[in-house]
Specification:
Helix content is about 40%, strand content about 15%. The protein is built from 12 helices and 10 strands. By secondary structure, the chain is α/β, with parallel strands linked by helices. The chain is globular and about 55 Å long. Bound molecules: iron/sulfur cluster. The site of iron/sulfur cluster has 9 residues, from α5 and α6.
């Protein structure tokens, strides 16, 4: 079923996908590309390693909201919101302490704090949530359940495991009645990768919105603490991120995704 969502003033998106597939790298490059276009952007990460914001802040780590709350600090905007490349507002929710609690609940507490401390949040054109992507976990559904996210994207490569996770995420989105706005392929240089991910996208009723080729330059920029848009703005890959950013900002179509059975999934990747 194809639904056309009405144009909204503020886009609030989340990028889901298997751990380690490149969500933070994609999110920060999209944030930078949108900032370059003049949009007001906020990125909210909840990776304990601050992966979402670090490349927008020249390699600097920022305190996480959960860490400050654990220290009983009454957080103010200047303690948790840091301006990075192109004026992107960077926030890190932080992860759970090992063995204790769940960032799913933490995300909500932290966002509520953020909304209180940072009224300009409602002014943003784009808010990107870079959240844990495992379907079984609270981190996955928390921002959606609270109405914080209005568009979901899934990042995958053409390998079986990331596609398996993507397929699971589709099942989860359908179960909680949340539309999917598209699939992004972050290439791992698998044979026929674009075709595999395109077919997967079509078979679940969605579409491939971007194919990001595997380029060493992305890792090189990251290692130096920069997004590709900042460090290598004329590279081909910067152009790919710019196109993805455009596709997201102008997207007005979302679907409740279907999913594939395991046999079909394996067949696709064979
Ligand atoms: S359930 Fe999910 S969000 Fe909660 S701690 Fe585990 S992985 Fe993180």
């Amino acid at each position: 079923m194809l639904m056309t969502t009405s144009a909204k003033n503020q886009k609030r998106i989340a990028i889901y996908g298997k751990g380690g597939i490149g969500k933070s790298s994609t999110a920060s490059n999209v944030a930078a590309a949108c900032a370059d276009e003049g949009y007001k952007v906020m990125i909210i990460g909840c990776d304990p390693k601050s992966d979402s914001s670090i490349t927008l802040l020249g390699g600097k780590r920022i305190p996480t909201i959960l860490d400050l709350l654990r220290q009983n600090i009454d957080v103010r905007e200047k303690d948790i919101v840091f301006e990075g490349y192109g004026g992107v507002k960077c926030v890190e929710v932080g992860g759970p302490e090992p063995g204790i609690g769940c960032a799913g609940r933490g995300i909500i507490v932290a966002i509520q704090k953020l909304q209180k401390a940072c009224p300009s949040m409602s002014d943003m054109d784009l808010i990107i949530y870079d959240v844990p992507g495992d379907i079984v976990c609270g981190g996955f559904v928390a921002p959606i359940r609270k109405g914080l996210v209005t568009e979901a994207y899934i990042l995958t490569s053409g390998e079986y495991m990331p596609l398996y996770a993507a397929n699971n995420i589709c099942k989860g989105l359908a179960k909680i009645d949340t539309p999917l706005s598209g699939i992004i392929c972050n290439s791992r240089s698998v044979t026929r990768e674009e075709e595999i991910v395109r077919r997967f996208s079509e078979e679940i009723g969605s579409r491939l919105v971007a194919f990001i080729p595997k380029e060493q330059i992305v890792q090189d920029c990251e290692r130096d603490g920069f997004s590709v848009l900042e460090k290598a703005p004329r590279s081909d890959i910067a152009h790919v991120y710019r196109n993805l950013a455009k596709a997201i900002m102008f997207n007005d179509q979302s679907i409740l995704p279907g999913s594939l059975d395991d046999e079909r999934l394996r067949e696709l990747t064979r």
